[in-house]
Amino acid sequence: MGEETLVAMPLAPHHHHHARLDALPHHVAPSSPPPPQPTVAGDNNKDEEEEERDRGVVESPPARVARPETTTTTPPPVLPAAGEEVYYARRMLQGAVLRPPPHLPQPEAPPGLARALSAPAPHGHAADEEEAEDGARQRPVDRSASANSAAAVVDVASIGRFLRDRRAVLSSAITRRISSLKEPSSPSDTYGVQEIHLPNVKVTVRLKDAIAADAAAEDGIALDDDPGYSFSGGHIKGRVSFFSRSGCRDCAAVRSFFRNSGLPYVEINLDVFPEREAELASRAGGAARVPQIFLNEKLLGGLVVLNSLRNSGEFERRVRDLAGRRCPDSAPRVPVYGFDDEAAAGEQTEDAMVGVVRVLRHRMPIQDRFVRVKLVKNCFSGADMVDAIVNHLNCGRDKAVEIGKELARKHFIHHVFRENDFEDGSQNLYRFLEHDPAVPKYYNFRGSTNDGEPKQAAAVGHRMTKIMLAILEAYASDDRRHLDYSRIAASEEFRRYANLVQELQRADMTALPAEERLPFFLNLHNAMAIHAVIRVGQPGAVDRRPFFSDFQYIVGGHPYSLAAIRNGILRANRRQPYTLAKPFGSNDRRLELAQRRANPLVHFALCDATRSSPIVRFYTTQGVEPELRHAAREFFLHSGVEIDLESRTVHLTRIVKWYSNDFGQDRDILRWVLNYLDPTKAGLLTHLLNDGGPINISYMNYDWSLNV
C-alpha cells in the first residue's frame, strides 16, 4: 500500500461547489445536469441515499477510452482531459474517496474493518450515473467502513503512512545490523559468527574470514597471525595435557604458563582423579613425578624440560606442528563429567548394622507425639525399638539395648532432644537420621542416609581439602580474590566434592585427633561457603540468615552451619555478634569438638565469599599455626588496616569491631595488630603508640558484594 489516497471532507451546499469550480482559472465548468429522478424504493432507501451522498462515496474514475458494452447498446461518452480534471475536482469537493484506476493495485481494508457498498455518483454525467447504477447491481464497489458503524469513514492514508513507517523501521534495523558486520569483531567473537535478533526474525551471518579460517584449520595450516604461542582463537587441532596434584608449585608454574600464553590445555589432577595414577605410571614410568606434559600422545616431560624448550624456541615449533594434527585416541583422555572411580566405588562397603536398620525402618511405629508441650515429629520410643529388635533377632532385652546403643553411636538414630545415646523406655523418644525435620537444610544429605561403613573424619577432611585446592587452582584468580562460581558449579571437581561430603553424615568425629580439629573445621567452613554461594546465593547485606545459619551440613550426626562452626567450634562457644545465646547448650555433644580458647587469628582464615572478607584458603594439619599468621599478614597488608598519621587515626577492618571480645580493648587491639603489619605500617603505628598522644580508631565499611 504505497500509493497516495486523496481524501476531501464534504462541503454541504452544492452551489458552493460550483462557485469553487468557477474560480479555478484552468478548469472548464460544465453545465449542471438535471437532478436524478427518485426511485420507488420507499423512504428508507431515500434516506440511505441521502446519507451516502452527504458523507461521500467511492467511485472508479472515468476512463479515456470507451468501456465494454453493458446492458445498454450506446457506449459511454469519452471525457476530454479537461472534463476529467473537472470531474476529479468535483468529486474531491463532494468528499468522495477516489480509488486508483482499474489497471493499478486497489487498496484493501485493514484487518478488523467491515466492507460496505458505495452509492452511485451524485450529480455526475448522465452516462456516469447510469454506469454507477448498473455497476452497483453487477459489480459493487467496496469501501472500508468501521465494524461498529457502517457510516464511518476510514482514513486510508493514515493506515498507509503507519505501514510505511513500520516498514522503514524494520528496514533500517536490519541495515544497521548488517552494516555493523563490516566492523572488526570483538576479541570475544572467537568463531566469527554474528547473530541478529529481531521480533520473529533471526538472521545468522557467517563471515568469510571465519569460513576461510575453518578451511585452513581443516587443511592443517597454522595461521600466521597468531603471535608467539597465543592460540586464543581456538584453531589448534591437537591437545596439550598435563598431570598434576593439588598444591604442587611446579604444577602451578606450568598452569600459569599455559594460561598466560593462551594455549588451551587439559589438566588431570590426580588428587581429584586418583584412578588416573596407573595411567600416568604406564605412560611416564613408575618413578615419574608431576607435572608431566603431553603433546597429543607424546610425552614432553616436566617443568625443567618445558623451560628448556621455551628458551630454545623448540616448544613453539612443536606446538605449531600440533595445531595441524588431530589428537589421536591414544592420547590421555579428557576427564568426563559424571563418572566416578570404579575402584573407589568398589571399596565402599555397607555398614554391618545396615541389615537390622532396614528391618527397623519398616517395622517401627513412627508417629508424631506431644512431649514437653512440643510436637515431636517422626519419632518412636526406646521400648518400641527394643521390642522390634527382640522380635527380629530373637534375643533378650539387654542385648537389644546394646544394639540400640550401637545404632545411636553410628548415628543411624538419635534422641529427639539429643540428651542421651539410647535407653529403654516409653518416655525416651528417638528418630532415624533421615526423619529429622531439618533435613531440607542439610545440603550434604540427598534423600537417604549414607549406609556405608563410616570413614575416618580425618581421611575425609584430607581428601576434601585436596579437591577444594584443585577447584581454586582451576577456577580462581591467582591471588584467590575472585572465584568463578558458575564454572565451579558445573565442574567435575565440585560434583565429586558434593559426593564426598555425604560421607560426613555418620563420621565419628570423636575419633578426630585434637590437633587436627582446627584445620578440619577451618577447611570445612571455607568449603561450605563456596557451596552456599552455589546453592543459596551470596550473603545479603540485611538478611544473612539463609547463608550463615540456614545452610547446614550434617556432620557426625549433628548439624553445623557457618555460624556454628565459627562461633561454636573455632571461638570456643562464644556468642555471635548482636545475639544473647551461645551456639551450643551445656549438654550439646558438639562442645567436645570446640576449641579450648578463642584464637583471634581464625577470623583472618575464614572466608564468607565477600569482597571484604579474607581470601579463601585451605590449611594443613602440620603447618596450621604458621599458615594462620601468614593469612593475617596478607590480610592487613592489602586492606585490613590504614593509618593516618596527621589525624592520629587508625582505620581497621570491621571484623575487629564485631569480634572485639577476642582482641581486647582499644590499645590492646592495636598492639595485637602491630605484630602482623608490614614494616611501613608497623613504624607508623609504633610512633602513635609510643608518643603518649590519643589515638582514634575508626572501622571501615564492610563490602558484602560477592568475590567474583
TrEMBL record:
<dbReference type="InterPro" id="IPR036388">
    <property type="entry name" value="WH-like_DNA-bd_sf"/>
</dbReference>
<dbReference type="InterPro" id="IPR002109">
    <property type="entry name" value="Glutaredoxin"/>
</dbReference>
<feature type="compositionally biased region" description="Pro residues">
    <location>
        <begin position="99"/>
        <end position="110"/>
    </location>
</feature>
<feature type="region of interest" description="Disordered">
    <location>
        <begin position="98"/>
        <end position="150"/>
    </location>
</feature>
<dbReference type="InterPro" id="IPR000591">
    <property type="entry name" value="DEP_dom"/>
</dbReference>
<feature type="region of interest" description="Disordered">
    <location>
        <begin position="25"/>
        <end position="81"/>
    </location>
</feature>
<dbReference type="Pfam" id="PF04784">
    <property type="entry name" value="DUF547"/>
</dbReference>
<dbReference type="Pfam" id="PF00462">
    <property type="entry name" value="Glutaredoxin"/>
</dbReference>
<dbReference type="InterPro" id="IPR006869">
    <property type="entry name" value="DUF547"/>
</dbReference>
<dbReference type="InterPro" id="IPR036390">
    <property type="entry name" value="WH_DNA-bd_sf"/>
</dbReference>
<dbReference type="Pfam" id="PF00610">
    <property type="entry name" value="DEP"/>
</dbReference>
<dbReference type="InterPro" id="IPR036249">
    <property type="entry name" value="Thioredoxin-like_sf"/>
</dbReference>
<protein>
    <recommendedName>
        <fullName>DEP domain-containing protein</fullName>
    </recommendedName>
</protein>
<feature type="compositionally biased region" description="Low complexity">
    <location>
        <begin position="58"/>
        <end position="73"/>
    </location>
</feature>
<feature type="domain" description="DEP">
    <location>
        <begin position="360"/>
        <end position="434"/>
    </location>
</feature>
